[in-house]
Amino acid sequence: xxxxxxxxxxxxxxxxxxxxxxxxxxxxxxxxxxxxxxxxxxxxxxxxxxxxxxxxxxxxxxxxxxxxxxxxxxxxxxxxxxxxxxxxxxxxxxxxxxxxxxxxxxxxxxxxxxxxxxxxxxxxxxxxxxxxxxxxxxxxxxxxxxxxxxxxxxxxxxxxxxxxxxxxxxxxxxxxxxxxxxxxxxxxxxxxxxxxxxxxxxxxxxxxxxxxxxxxxxxxxxxxxxxxxxxxxxxxxxxxxxxxxxxxxxxxxxxxxx
Length: 258
Prior knowledge:
- This protein has nine helices and seven strands.
- By secondary structure, the chain is an alpha+beta fold.
């Protein structure tokens, strides 16, 4: 937690102020804050409930694969049964066999949940942060600024990367971070958003979003909302959020503005 406080959270307000003061000079912003931006995005790709869920799912699949190839056949079950009988001689064989078969079925079907201990999660998280930071460090960073009455939303999965459907192929899937056509949105506030891509640009400038191009805000908000896990954060009520909650969030739910 000290790392996040010292390296990320304590510097965030100054970072936002610097962007607003130097919005059209993205080169200067990158000179001053490029390393910080990479750390910030890598953190937000990893320090989330969604990331914890993905890590726990990874361990779950690993357990299933290990179980599948561990030769958990009848001979192995008999060995386990004998070991149990030596430790618990008063328990009936039928109860042991029932428990062993239930365990086998549970693992095979995935009818269990994995809860990763905090220390193990942090260790895994920092490793993933390092890898993702290296992958996104050479992406082109653009800054979008809202000049309309609309606003950017965010969620418990605030940095979202993807490959557009028409670019998906055998070399890069829809959720490929390292693909040549990967794009990444990360709203910084209701009026600022980072956009990363691998498209090289000779001149980096901030992009103002006005009434003429405000569909960009709709696109960002649509992507953020559809990639949220449990929470969407919005500064105001909006019709598209009400529509989204009715279509995609099972009742009952709470819709709060924050």
